[in-house]
Amino acid sequence: MLASLSGRKAISLIEVLIAMAMLSTLALPMGMFLIEYLRGSTELSDYYQILNQVEQRLEVAMEMPFNRIPIGRSSGVLIDNPFSMDLDLRPAEIAQNEVHYSLTVDMMPIEFSALKDSFSGQLQRARVEEGMKRLEIVAEWGDKKQHNIRLIAYRANL
Questions:
Q1: CA distances in angstroms from 158 to 85, 91, 114, 131, listed in the order given
Q2: pLDDT for residue 109 is more than 70
Q3: pTM
């Protein structure tokens, strides 16, 4: 409501206070939303950068000769590969996060029934003890390593 003082129009203090109250009830949630949105997009960007690094390390591990992939858990080291790139599992800083990498390799036997006995006609089972390796690369970061990415691949001894 506009009040009239000697023929001039003016806004009362009550109207200004009501307008400010309405504006603040809308501005506060919008401001909080924008802050959370920016924080979330930064964390998502960090996640994708780290995911790309983990994928790259897994590809390097998969390109290594079968017998050069170390069995057991390796972390914080540089694994030498004379035929291609070395596998770097040392901690790295990515987007203001210190990321720790580890590689766990387990030997897995392969069992299959592909040989047919010529006399009996039955399939014979064959087992290769050192036929496959299971590779798991883990990246951990954050306070108390609260975030992690874990990728698993299998490599056959062909």
A1: 21, 32, 16, 8
A2: yes
A3: 0.67
